């Protein structure tokens, strides 16, 4: 039997690199998947690429309660239940010292990365089956500090607080709640951070990040997706309230 046979999963940030490859693994393991993201075109492209009768999508701004309620309701309407929630949507902002950091960018990051995650748990939990699993994307930046990324680091630390609280509140229903904490991942977000760190010198910035990772390279999106799949499956039945670090040894220093 497949690991997610007859399970229904929601994935926010579903058209991004980690969201999309996680959806692929979920589908291969027998799940029905609702992709959620801000751009309908990107969702359509992701759904076309995944090419499964068990994929649907909902356009939503995760920072708006009405949009979150909508994607939850659509999932119930189309699939009848929710077993797994990959609360993954997030944005990176810019790289600037805290004294120069734009307040409007800070507000946007907190709105998406903190409020969006909180709203997701708030509206998914009442509809989730007992024994389900919530996986929330934090970051190695939710464990460590990084110069120039004050808003992002703040938001990813906050995700840990939401996770721990939700894990305690959901435990009586045997719902597991955990965070995943990737190192830099080889994807669009890191290209943005590299370029924002030093315009025109992104490759040099990448080498500096890689040098800080004992295993000497960025994570690949599929490596993060495999950890999420494990946490979504019943193989992780006794794991809740944890920070699952997947960083090539970066936080061990």
Automatic annotation (TrEMBL):
It comes from Chryseobacterium populi. One of its GO terms (molecular function) is oxidoreductase activity. Pfam families: adh_short_C2. Coiled coil: none annotated. This is Short-chain alcohol dehydrogenase like protein. CDD domains: SDR_c. Belongs to the short-chain dehydrogenases/reductases (SDR) family. The keyword Oxidoreductase applies.
